[in-house]
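Suppose you are handed only two things: the residues of a chain and a line of SMILES describing glutathione. What would the bound structure be? This form records exactly that question and the answer produced for it, so the two can be stored side by side and reused later without any lookup.

QUESTION INPUTS
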Amino acid sequence: MSGARINAYVEKPFRLTSIRFSHYVEKVRWTMDRLAIPYLERPLMPLVHFAVTPFVTGLSGHADDQSTRFSTPVIKTDRNEVIVKSSAIMRYLSERCLSKGETLFPTEEVVQLDDHYNRYLGPHTRRLFYINVLDQPDLMFELTDRNVGVGQAWLFRVLFRSFRKWILSGLGITRERVDKGIGHIHKEFDRVAQRLGDGRPYLFGDRLTAADISFACLGGAAMLPTPEEGYGAYLPPVDRCSDELRRVSTELRDSDAGKWALSLYRAERGKRVIPALPGLLRP
Ligand SMILES: N[C@@H](CCC(=O)N[C@@H](CS)C(=O)NCC(=O)O)C(=O)O
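ANSWER OUTPUT
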């Protein structure tokens, strides 16, 4: 990206500890890629992450209402600072690399909308995803094979039945919540379409902010964007998903806000190339 970057130098690549397909992680990848920050990603499967993130975060992690104190994304910077939670990481990156005039968080409204997406939209789309994909083990294993190394993929397969139960109960996923959630997801997409109705290119006017990235990731993930469409991890292909996930994803893709979010991926992310699978818990 162009403009007055106030810090163009980093001492060494950042480390991103991630659940690679997570839409909260995509917010951070998007920001780092946009700022051209070099980083190495350490992709983990859910639950396996409990064995790794404590070693990265030490005592710095904290729980919020969407995640535990060991959640991902976590970054370790070139200066060995450890930063947790997607929005805090984005804010750090913005403050470190962008001038005041370019910040991703220019107003309190942007902060609040990003926070709203973190609290409500992200969990709704995540529940919709898991309730469907966890019922299609083949698809889940493909997701695993393409997003983590062989050791973790094997572990996930072997323990799949227990992992499935823990993920569903840990995230409070019930049929009733998912049914309600689908309505909420559509409402959020409608609100975005309304906001963009006056022809503005971004949610807050002429320039991209954290809120745009947040919506495109936390809402947009429900459209299951592919790496070719700009998503930085492998998600299951829409046409092989359950009826419900395919239906919702297709409806969102056909909506004005969905088309806009996909156009943001095209413009901002381009075709992604997902790095080769690392070995067990590496790099
Ligand atoms: N508010 C957190 C939410 C992050 C989050 O929910 N991450 C999920 C991945 S989708 C996770 O790592 N969950 C495991 C956990 O909470 O231990 C953020 O913005 O980073």
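WHAT STANDS OUT: The CA atoms of residues 87 and 273 lie 24 Å apart. The domain at 108-269 is CATH 1.20.1050.10 (Glutathione S-transferase Yfyf (Class Pi); Chain A, domain 2).
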